[in-house]
Write a structure and sequence with these properties.
The complex is a heterodimer of chains A (about 350) and B (about 260).
Chain A (H helix, E strand, L loop, with lengths): L1 H13 L1 H13 L1 H4 L3 H26 L7 H18 L4 H20 L7 H21 L1 H4 L5 E2 L5 E2 L2 E2 L3 H24 L1 H11 L1 H6 L4 H27 L1 E2 L6 H14 L5 H16 L7 H15 L20 H12 L1
Antiparallel strand pairs in A: 1-4, 2-3
Chain B lengths: L2 E12 L2 E12 L3 E5 L6 H8 L7 E6 L2 E2 L5 H7 L1 E3 L12 H7 L9 H6 L2 H20 L15 H13 L5 E5 L7 H16 L3 E5 L3 H7 L2 E6 L2 E6 L1 H5 L2 H8 L2 H8 L1
Parallel strand pairs in B: 3-8, 3-9, 6-7, 7-8
Antiparallel strand pairs in B: 1-2, 1-4, 4-5, 9-10
Helix pairs in contact in B: 3-5, 3-6
Amino acid sequence: MNQLMNKVQKLWDEHKIVSMAVLFILLLTVPSVFPKNYIMGIICRILLYILLAGGLNVINGYSSQFCIGYAGFFCIGAYAEAILSLKAGMNFWILLPISGIITAIFGLLIALPTLRLSGKYLSIVTLGFSEIIRLTVLNWNGLTGGPMGIKGIAVPSLFGLEFKSAIQYYYIFLFLVILFVFATSRVIKSRIGRAWMSIREDELAAKSLGVEASKYKAMNFMYGAFWAGIAGAAYAPYTRYIDPTFFTLDEGFNILAMVIVGGMGTMVGPIAGSIVINIVTELLRPISEYRMVVYAILIIGMMWLRPQGLFGATQSILSGGKIMKKSDRGKKKGREAA
Amino acid sequence: MSIILEAKKVSKYFGGLKAVDEVDMSINSGEIFGIIGPNGAGKTTFFNMCSGVYSLTRGGIWLSNENITGMRSERIANKGLARTFQNIQLFKFMSVMENVKIGFHVHTKTNVLNAILHTSTYRKDEQFVNRRALEIVEQVGLSPYKDTMAGNLSYGIQRRVEIARALALDPKVLLLDEPAAGMNPNETRDLMLFIKKLNKDGYTIVVIEHDMKFVMNTCDRILVLNFGKKICEGNPDHVKNDPLVQEAYFGKGLLTKEADT
């Protein structure tokens, strides 16, 4: 697996521009290959969840603050878009960043009181936060329509072109995913990404080097929340109808499962996780709710055999704290052969 | 010579335990200052207070005449005080270069927007960090290991990486907590020469150490702690001959018994 990944990586690095262009053209032609709305719907789901899992990966994978209530942020983004577009009649393209910023502010609000928490305590707080958001949305009839949800959200349009079906909407999701990967990979490679990773690896040492841990943790939460807001804002006009049942804790666990299966702490991880989990979901549709059992087995097996996930950061504290030297690996293989 | 780091009546109590009790210390710029004492004397606690890991029960600490009492450790690092840890706290899964690069955090300014748009601030920062990190890695003699994962290096080299990372802060004072712990005599000698060289390059160094040969040969002045109290301060010869220091390290039972019989 690692060898294969290294080979792909090498090939990618050597012909970076060419491979990017090829990938881009392939992605553009996807709708003409799959003209059916059903399959395009699945592909749109995959792209939506790449955004969500990617955003969660920035929080869980890069600074190792274990957030499990990510659906709360998704909910805020979706409702911000729906309410502002219905009540204020604002344009979808303006609402995208606005919903992102609103969600990021909520991210800051939850990050500030929890800066001193870590590990499972932080997880419990985010869990509670997600439920608070859902219950608020469920009961605030005046603003959110309560259990009835919000109907008839305006479809985005660009130069007179309306994004109505999954085939057209695919391009919006694709645009957002490319934007996300572009921005995040640059942030990760900069001083800010280094600060996040130093906090993940050893917070005490990071502080002793002048990394303001609390500031960067808050910033990390805001960045992750921002993309959840964007994903929510893109999702609301896609389904044209949202209600609180979309944003339950199960949704949060679903996103978390993608991050864990795909692997934390890399850009590829959440993309792979989203593809795998969404395809498994589609394949297992006939057995309905029993597919949760399959997820559970998948996650347990993953944690057991490959704690860093399919494409996770092998060279990080996320891989279970083991450092494998090349020579050790050789020896182990030799011993097994003998 | 000016005083660069000063501690006045610094105390730390853990409940009823007086881990550090009214210790005074003043360090001149450009010297190598040693802190010694038996196990549990409060040396590391004292260090942790200087670098902001622990809060002070009483007293105050000044870094080049600026009061840093009660500041958080990241602020203190920003003011120019870098430290290493007794049980090495490297970023084990990052390469040596990446470890050193994180040390430049306080000297760079890139924010999220700069990073996304690759503005001139970002490019300047990255160039600066890459160039200086290479320089420091070379200065410390780690060039052959610069792309190795820090966790895979030998103990002595890891110590060096930790020092290199602290040097990236361009500190006024460098605190080293037991840098020679667990090293063999050869490694210790290398380290001794290395610390002397750093001092010659202009760094003020404070070092906690158990290895007497190491301390006596490198330090200009030495402070001795025992049970949280300062019992002696002075140059190595003075400290060596101090009766209180001898008592703290060897006890006094044997001599008096012989005298009695």
